[in-house]
């Protein structure tokens, strides 16, 4: 926490408060936001809640499927340097023993809580293996399976799994959605060949989001809208987008933003390639090649991204989308989907996990519990 009894102002002209950009500076005392709307600082700048990323497979040279606790903590520090103060480590489809080893490591890190300069782990996102064989993307087909209640129950015991991506059309999928939703686990539909009717059945059962909309799912057709059409038409369904210039055309992003106003969320689907130059990396044993920022597997299929969430925010703003809605999509909206009232908010009494952004929405400063982050580069653990 900050120094006892000492208040500091962030030196901003406005802040994202309750989904609106409110004029004035922000005061922080002992790691907590104490006042907003103070006389604005000269020089501009915007304060916002720390960014929240729901889909991080790896980052800054680390693949989470094979990471030990030190490497996971390196990812948490690297994410924080890009303005992310809370995140979901995400595990794609893999051999069950590898998934279980990764879950144990992530469970250990989550239970210990964040160290100095680390973004908070809010739980684990299982992206698979209950996916459509027709929409696997880069997920290894040999490890795909239909929903398996016993396997899933075992995995839920190993780590705080808070989100699961699955295909609703699979045998047993709807019963699995109902069980997960009843247990408080958020279900997102993705990697799916679902018709619109099958997608709506998944939402009726308790699913509440779609994973990287339009990617690895049935297409939107004017007579069969598929999973993306059902999600865009369905009130209350969270729509997750990867805005990196490769996953979605610019006009598609604008259409999604208009159709799902107030329920869009920016995610990265980050891999070990994120925050790294082009080169060769791996994702759960799958070889990746990054060229001009696009991450592909040996078959040329997009395989996650090299995106960082602060860059996604800037990309979305550059498309002409409203600044407040863009910031909301990377902060309060993902936090609300997880049911976390302690994350993604900037208001008096809230923990001061904050970012200060310049006029282009680039990160100027990061505060974790009111403490400014030291952003010097760090070595990746061996």
UniProtKB/TrEMBL annotation:
Query: Which Gene3D superfamilies did the record assign?
Result: Metal-dependent hydrolases, Urease, subunit C, domain 1
Domain of life the protein comes from: Bacteria
User: What are the entry keywords?
Assistant: Carbohydrate metabolism, Hydrolase, Metal-binding
Q: Where is the Amidohydrolase-related domain?
A: 48-359
InterPro entries, alphabetized: Amidohydro-rel, GlcNAc_6-P_deAcase, Metal-dep_hydrolase_composite, Metal_Hydrolase
Family the UniProt entry places it in: Belongs to the metallo-dependent hydrolases superfamily. NagA family.
Q: What is this protein called?
A: N-acetylglucosamine-6-phosphate deacetylase
Classification lineage: Bacteria, Bacillati, Actinomycetota, Actinomycetes, Propionibacteriales
